[in-house]
Amino acid sequence: MKRLHHPFAACALAGAIAAAFAGNAFAAKKDVADAPLETIQAVLTAPPFAPPPITRKTPAHVVVDLEMVEKDMRMADGVTYNYWTFGGTVPGSFIRVRKGDTVEFKLKNHHSSHFSHNIDLHAVTGQGGGAEATFTLPGKETQFTFKALNPGLYIYHCAMAPVGMHIANGMYGLILVEPEEGMEPVDKEFYVVQGDFYTEGAHGEPGLQPFSLEKAIEEHPTYVVFNGSVDSLQGDKALTAKAGEKIRIFVGNGGPNLVSSFHVIGEIFDKVYTEGGSKYQENVQTTLVPAGGSAIVEFKADVPGNFVLVDHSIFRTFHKGSLGILKVEGEKNPEIYTGQQHDIDYKEGVPQGSQHK
Ligand SMILES: [Cu+2]
Question: Which of 77, 177, 342, 350 is most buried by its number of CB atoms within 10 A?
Fold first, then answer.
């Protein structure tokens, strides 16, 4: 005898009801989908800045125009390098879209380029992340279109063979897909991407330095830097903020080889969206940023000072270049941080804790 309360029977009934409702919901969604999307030209920014937050509440048809340029730029004082770039900078232009957007992606390869390039965006669902569709000879433009299905912070990079060499020459950047509800407002947003570079000459050896395939294969970088060069975030190029401001840094790691132990000396990240995903961890000192990966870090700059961005694999920082400054100005707050309170002779034989009496 058939038991009406058999769990599968119950499931089938519930499924049929759910399907009926889903059918209605689908019909309603389809009407919205049929409405023509507003066409918007994407605002692209050079590091260390990100385009403004997205305020619209509906998907759009976003057009991205990105130009690939090969050019000599400064690696360090007296040292230049022939960088291959997306948009003329390392990392490449920051791209910001919203979940559900349809992105029409136009990739241009400058006439002066010596090589063909393409792009693999980790935000793309589809063959090669777009690489197959964007093989672009010098002087050509290619195009493909994708739908931003998953929110998150994604690396993009060139995927022409030898892939490692194109990435090692600076061909990477970040694309942010904002969630539908947007992101929590902050006072300042920055764009920082680590990369490792391999030159024939030793660290600091002057002149135009060729790429060393041997060092790259051995994973022995000559330079490990933020935003493409030594001192890119120092002096008058330091990141700046005021005490009390909420800071968000979109952190990426282009690699091609190293994993970054990203840390800001003198700060604690209130939130880290680990690996650039949707969930955050709280109260983090150092976050791992994989090669070809990202993280979103957020913190309040409570007190003034020079806060130092580092890869805490620390020899890289002090000997290969991965050091940047966030300069925070404002009123001191001794309740949070006093600065040095004394510097006196230490008297041997006096019990600990009473030397200064
Ligand atoms: Cu390339």
Answer: 177
Give the distance (Å) from ligand 1 centre to CA of residue 115: 7
- Report whether 102 contacts 149 (CB < 8 A): no
Judge whether 180 and 319 are in contact, CB under 8 Å.
no
pLDDT digit string, tens, across residues 302-337: 999 999 999 999 999 999 999 999 999 999 999 999
Q: How far is the CA of 166 from the centre of ligand 1 (A)?
A: 5
Task: Please give the single-letter amino acid code of residue 303.
Answer: V
Query: What's the gap in Å between 146 CA and the centre of ligand 1?
Result: 20
pLDDT tens figures, 206-228: 999 999 999 999 999 999 999 99
SS3 label, residue 106: strand
Measure 213 CA to ligand 1 centroid, in angstroms: 15
**Residue 71: beta bridge partners?**
83
What number of residues does the chain have? 357
Residues 157 and 90: their CA atoms lie apart, in Å, by: 11
Report CA(197)–ligand 1 centroid distance (Å). 15
Distance from residue 138's CA to the centre of ligand 1 (Å) = 11
pTM over 0.90: no
Distance from residue 160's CA to the centre of ligand 1 (Å): 5
